[in-house]
Amino acid sequence: MRIGIDATGVWGIKDGLLNGIMIYAIHIANNLMKIDNNNQYYIYCRDEVPDQLNPQSSTASFRVFRSKNRKLLQQIKLPMAALFDRLDLMFFPYHSASMFCPCRSVITIHDLHPYVVPKQFAEIHSSHIHGSKLISIINKVYWEEMLKLAARRMDGIIAVSYSTKRDIVNIFHVSPDKIHVVYEGVDKKYFNLNNDGKDLPQFRQKYGLPEKYILSVGTHAYKNIEGIIRSFSIIKEKYQGPVKLLIVGNKNYLAKKIFQLVRDLDQDGQIIFTGFFPGEDLKYLYQCAEVFLFPSFYEGFGLPVLEAFSCGTPVVTSTTGSVPEVAGEAALLVDPDDHEEIASAVLQILADKTFRAKRRQQGFNQVEKFSWENAARMTLKVFNKIVKG
User: Fold this and answer.
1) What are the residue ranges in the chain where pLDDT is below 50?
2) What are the extents of the domains in the chain?
């Protein structure tokens, strides 16, 4: 087969824009080309080939498009490229797709945030992030309608969890036979307990990290930032010892009310917003954390949970969305709306070393169930089924 991969969404990494869906696209593409020597791959990139896409494969060809507008690139240039390269199948790993693709097509749908948690997700399209109300509206309408159309028009859909598959069936009314569940993986070569000779005290000093901290990753509203802060305020009242909260992610996504809430709860200096954190140091951030706190309102998969498990960090996460599938019995599952329950779970891990050690081991066991290579093999089976029947 001649297989195209739309990697135009893997863009802006050098500016700190790397997110979970980009990580998915990078690992799936690299592992497909690692395990598959029978098919020819065409990787379509925007402006440049990202450094992270570096497969050692003689069957891979890269195409680079210069474009300021990814929407036009995807709807006009990609279909033309598919014709020119005589593709048998185009794979869209990043939520959106070309509506006029001239060959068979498969899309990965990671989640349905706009439909499941519309209130919390709406802030992603707010004007304070995009700088213009008009651009915000255009982006919101385009990406949400694109997701709906793609789910109905594609020849096959990959869902990253059974929870996401149920959402697609129930919300978009797509036949479940069209949807194939393929779990994501985790890069265990990087996310692990090995500190690679790094001096962790110096690492803490470099970033001004406290000796003991609770870690949270992600700054969008649906990550339950307000709930995390309120829960931490309860933890501070009850925990006998110094501990701080680190919230990692783009500070531009945070509404002004979040910073006001920190002041209102008298947690200035106790809650640290790190902003973008370099990916090459992320595993040490997990390693040094006492607890990873991830009580998101909704996740299509929940990759950070696996990253924390791989680094030996106990996890407190949500009962909602796909996270229970991913976490299994290794994490403490809490109601994201119950601040007392969240605080209680964190306090249990902080206070009980034996309980903490048990959770660490359960995390190591759970993460062994997931790998990017297996995800790529299952994805390739989907391609074969779509093209060859």
Assistant:
1) none
2) 2-185+371-388, 200-367
Task: Tell me the residue length of the chain.
Answer: 389
The CATH classification of domain 200-367, taken from the options 3.40.718.10, 3.10.450.50, 3.40.1190.10, 3.40.50.2000? 3.40.50.2000
Q: 148: buried, middle or exposed (CB in 10 Å: 19+, 13-18, 0-12)? A: middle
CA angle at 337 for the pair 167 and 121, rounded to the nearest 5°? 50
The closest alpha carbon to 44, from 29, 23, 24, 65, belongs to: 65
Fold of 2-185+371-388: Rossmann fold (3.40.50)
Give CA–CA dist 389/387, Å, rounded: 6
CA distances from 133 to 69, 123, 126, 136 (A): 18, 12, 7, 5
Q: What pLDDT is attached to residue 124? A: 67
